[in-house]
Protein 1
Amino acid sequence: PRVLSRAAAAGALALVACENDNAAAQIAQVNKIEETPPSSSDIPGDANRGESIYIAKCGACHSVDQNRIGPKHRGVYGQAAGGVEDYDYSPALANSGIVWDADTLNEWLAGPTKMVPGTRMGLALSDEQDRRDVIAYLKSVSPISATE
C-alpha cells in the first residue's frame, strides 16, 4: 500500500472538501495518527544483541536463572512486578501493580526511579535500541513468548 505524508494526505483531503463536509475532521485525524508515537511493542528488537547487552550491563546484579542483588529474569515478560519468589522487593515495586510487557519494560529501563519512586534499582539504559534489544531478549526467555 502507498503511504502518504501528512501534507500529501491533508492536501488530498482538501481537494474533496467541497464535496465532503467531513474533510476538516479527516485532516485532523491524519494529523493525530502521525503524531501518535509507536508503542514499544510495535518496534522490533534483536534478542541476540539484547542478550549481550543484558550480560554486560545487567549481569552484575541480575541473572536469568538466579536471584542476585536483583531478581532473576527468566519469565519476567508477562509477569507482575514483584512476582519472583524468594526475592525481597522494595515495597514501592512490590505494590506498583505493574505487569511487565514491552511498554512497561521500556519505561522501566529508561528510568526505574522515575517510573517507581522508592525502587532500589537505579541503573537505566539511555539508548532506545539497547532497551528494545534487552526487551526482546527478556521476552525470548519467558514462556509467554511462545504464545505471541
Protein 2
Amino acid sequence: LQLTDEQSGETTVVGVEHVTLGALTVTLIALIPVVLAFGKIAGRAWPGRVATGGLLVLAALTTISNVRGEDPSFFPPVAVASNLLIVVGLIGLAVTLTRSGRFPKALAIALPVTWVFVLPLSAIGGGLAASAYWLVVAWLLHQGELPRRTSAQLETA
C-alpha cells in the first residue's frame, strides 16, 4: 500500500493511510511478545523490555494519529524517543543473542537492521525485507531450530 499510495502529507492521515497506519500499529504490538521471548532466549530480559517500552509508546502514538486523522503536536519528540528505545533494545538483543550462542549470528545482527526497513525504508518497500526476516525466524521457530541448544545443553542431553 505504501508503494502504490502517495502520502497526503507529513502529519495528516486520510484514506488508505488509515489502513497502513493501523497495520503498523498491529505490527508494533505483535513484536512485543517476540522481543520479550528473544530476551528470554538470550538470558537477558532488559533489551526486550527496553524495546517493548518503545513499541508500546509508538503503538499508542500511531493509534492516536489514526483516530484523530493527524499527528498530535507532541508526536515528533515522543516518536523519536520511542524509536531510540526500540533501536537500543534491538541492538541489546542482537548482542545478547549472539553471545548466548542460542541464535544464529546473522539473524541476531540483522535484528536491529529490520527496524531501518520497517520505518525509514518502508515507503520504498522496506517492510517487505523486514517481513522476510520475520518469516525466516518464524520458520526456524516452527521447525524447532530456534532457540539453538548450547554446547552445555547438548552435553547433558
